[in-house]
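Example 9 (inverse folding). The structure is encoded as follows.
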């Protein structure tokens, strides 16, 4: 387009130069003095128009210079006028051709821009569709291969408790955030697949309360709310406190293992911080098989100690018992020898 415009401007400049030259050329031919001679054919004698001596009689040649001058001026003017009209017509034609060419070039550029715009838009739409399909496929693959263990009781127990449920719920929510699962039906499907039979059985035994999300519109949120309400209920807390009070040390269970099990069970009883260690001390005082551990638990509680203080005493007792076993083995070996 730039090349076409440049060519039009060069042609217009050339026509203007030719017009200026023509005007200058004809202007030089205009008579400036009274002695300009008439145009004549070759070989024909022409009488000069400059001073002619005559007596001024009527019909004499003395009147010819003024008449010839007027005739020459009229012819030159007519010729110049015709030349100017021709040049103006050519310039007007060139102007129309220039406008037409500019319009053609503008239309072509507009069509090219529309083509590339439509092409780019189509490519973006195709790319967006491809990306959406790819993300959907990857999301489905991620959901199908999502590795979430089912909610199961902790080792040594036969029923679910709040601690195991909270751990499983956190893993489930983190996994669904990772695969960007936001639809309620999708979340509920994943919940039913990964929950396990014990948690689903527990869910079936709960009821929807008024403040909970609607079960039909928000099935996943409703299920989580029902389970949270169960594990936070007063009945559940009282049952866990009863279990804590009746915990005894098993045969073969070390002192440190027993105290740790009691401390873990106290977390399910919703005790306050100062009440929790008191409940632990009472349980260890009644349920431990080692008299020294029972004494330690009572003394730490009376002295205003904490669970860490009791654990330090229990570890020292474990080291003492191990040393006694080693000494007994060495004595037995010496006796046999």
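The amino acid assigned to each position is listed next.
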């Amino acid at each position: 387009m730039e090349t076409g415009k440049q060519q039009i401007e060069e042609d217009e400049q050339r026509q203007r130069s030719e017009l200026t030259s023509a005007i200058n050329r004809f202007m030089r031919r205009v008579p400036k003095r009274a002695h300009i001679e008439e145009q004549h054919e070759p070989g024909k004698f022409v009488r000069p128009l400059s001073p002619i001596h005559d007596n001024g009689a009527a019909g004499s040649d003395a009147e010819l210079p003024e008449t010839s001058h007027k005739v020459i001026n009229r012819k030159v003017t007519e010729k110049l006028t015709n030349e100017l009209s021709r040049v103006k017509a050519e310039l007007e034609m060139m102007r129309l051709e220039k406008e037409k060419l500019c319009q053609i070039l503008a239309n072509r550029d507009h069509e090219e821009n529309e083509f590339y715009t439509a092409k780019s838009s189509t490519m973006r739409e195709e790319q967006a569709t491809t990306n959406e399909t790819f993300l959907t496929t990857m999301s489905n693959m991620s959901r199908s291969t999502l590795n979430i263990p089912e909610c199961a009781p902790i080792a040594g127990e036969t029923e679910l408790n709040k601690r195991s449920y909270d751990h499983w719920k956190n893993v489930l929510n983190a996994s669904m955030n990772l695969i960007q699962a936001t639809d309620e039906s999708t979340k509920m499907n994943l919940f039913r697949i990964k929950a396990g039979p014990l948690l689903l059985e527990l869910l079936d035994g709960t009821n929807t309360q008024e403040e909970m999300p609607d079960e039909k519109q928000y099935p996943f949120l409703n299920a989580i709310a029902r389970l949270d309400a169960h594990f936070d209920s007063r009945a559940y807390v009282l049952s866990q406190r009863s279990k804590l009070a009746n915990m005894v040390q098993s045969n073969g269970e070390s002192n440190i293992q027993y105290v740790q099990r009691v401390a873990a069970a106290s977390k399910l009883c919703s005790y306050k911080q100062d009440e929790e260690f008191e409940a632990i001390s009472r349980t260890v005082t009644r349920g431990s098989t080692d008299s020294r551990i029972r004494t330690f638990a009572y003394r730490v509680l009376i002295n205003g100690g904490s669970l860490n203080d009791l654990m330090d005493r229990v570890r020292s007792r474990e080291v003492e018992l191990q040393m006694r076993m080693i000494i007994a083995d060495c004595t037995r070996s010496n006796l046999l020898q």
